[in-house]
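Hi! If you just cloned this repository, the fastest way to understand the data is to look at a raw example. We've pasted two of them here, unedited. The first protein comes first, obviously.
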Amino acid sequence: APTDEPRTLDSFKRAVSDSMKGTPQRMQMNAMQAKAKPQKSIWSTVAENQLLVMLALAGIALAAWQLMRK
């Protein structure tokens, strides 16, 4: 990091220790945020990706038509 300056070993150990103490708390907060976010339904996902769904259906129809021709 650009703002790092030389420091003593004790100062470095203290900084690492402080960082490690806060890690479980940050992980717990991230897990709580993930739980709070409701999962999207399949229909809302399809509605958001209508063009992609239409292209997929066209591809399936084309493949079925090719199979029927043979």
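Ok, and the second one:
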Amino acid sequence: MADEVTRHSTSSSEPSPPVPAPPPPPRRLLPPPPASLPPSRPPPPGTSPPTHTPPSRRREIGGTSRTDQQIMDRSHEDSSLDIDEIAISMEDLITNKAFSWECCIYRVPARLRRLNEEAFTPRVVSIGPFHHGKENLKAMEHHKIMYLQQFLERSKVNVGDLINVFEGYETKLRDCYAEIETIDLSKEDFAKMIILDAVFIIMVLLKFVGESNESLHGEQIFFRPWKFVDVVWDICLLENQLPFFLLQKLFELYPIKNCTIMELTFDLLKEVWTNWVKEDSRERINCSGVLHFVDFLRMCQQPSKHHLPKDKTRFSSAPVPTAMELHQSGVKFKNPGRNSLFDIRFSNGILEIPQLEIHARTEILFKNLQAFEQCHHMYEDKFVSDYISFISCLVRAPNDVGVLARNENLKIMLNSDEVVSKLVYNLDKENVVSANNFLIGICEDLNSHCRKRRHNWMATLKQDYFKNPWTAISVAAAAFLLILTVTQTVMPESMVVGDGVQGACRQRSRRWHVPCRDCCL
């Protein structure tokens, strides 16, 4: 018994033999391929046979379960809804288009406004939506209502008639303004604003031309000259415009004969911009082609046909010499007395430039015309911008202003020549000329003239030695003596003639002899 216990304890202290692993489950063989499929080819030598992924693993890698498929279907439905919403919003953007080919009234580009914001900002009255509702301009709103009342009394129409005219052109009116969608104005507010502003402009035109002093009693505009001028300047700003066709339609409701709104507009603008609006441009302006007052002013100054370049691809970037440089090259400046400021000519060393008035409001006129051309005329026919570029090349310093002022090409109404040169310099900032610059031929002719040295020499002789008659006489006498001296020194003795026969002088012993009567005379 003890031996059995001892054997049991001994056997329990020894390690038990390893338990054999259970046999692997029988391998599931893939079903044989269908009889219609050809047997698979054995892999090429040196490559391992392809491994077959179990069906469950294949679902994890490349397939989807039924639950996953339902989630993807719902996600696809959600993405389809987003696409529909985007499509609807884009259709709304197309319907409410931000730009139209009818657009002609623009906001001034920021790069131009930064140069002189006052040149583009109205002072006393707002016209159109861009400056509507500003606090400093509300004082004139009461005056607009008073003018509307007078218009209705004299035209025998009612407000409904004015609204009917507006409704017929509402879409066209909105299309005339750039970025109109950024202005929060309802249809009713827009109609009220347009009608009040249009009637206000018409009444200003009528009162300026045809009203008597008695009917103007108590007027805040016409009995205050400074305010009248400010009003006219304000209605000539690019951002302060109404389409001209609306003014024509409303003016037809007013009972006046033998007078058109085109004639009234011309007379009013001529009163303020006397140097720009000339009488000979009255017949040139086509009423149907005028967009607004800024476009009207632009039409008042147009280059003649012979100034327009025949080759529209012709472009030159060569700078034009300054007025002083042209003067030193012998160019003469002349005021031809022509009405068109753009009628500039150069021939036979004479540069003809019609007189330009420079006053405190010159920059306002040119800046707004310049901004309109940059917004509305993309590449060609920037006549005002081309003219500004030409004048700014001539005037780069105060002495250039003096040259043009002495020759009556400039009429200065400012304090000094330096102020004028700075004004012209500011006009040319951010200026964009047209590809078919109508002054390119004159620029090339001026550069060609200055490159010829004989013109510089002759100009120096005239300007330095022929300033006054006494200097000219002195120079002429000195030149005459110099010619005599050179003739006596250089002429050979063989050219001396005596007694009708060529020979030598008998007084050869004298080195410097005076021609004697016997042999030399």
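That's it. A detail worth noticing about the second one: The mean pLDDT is 79.
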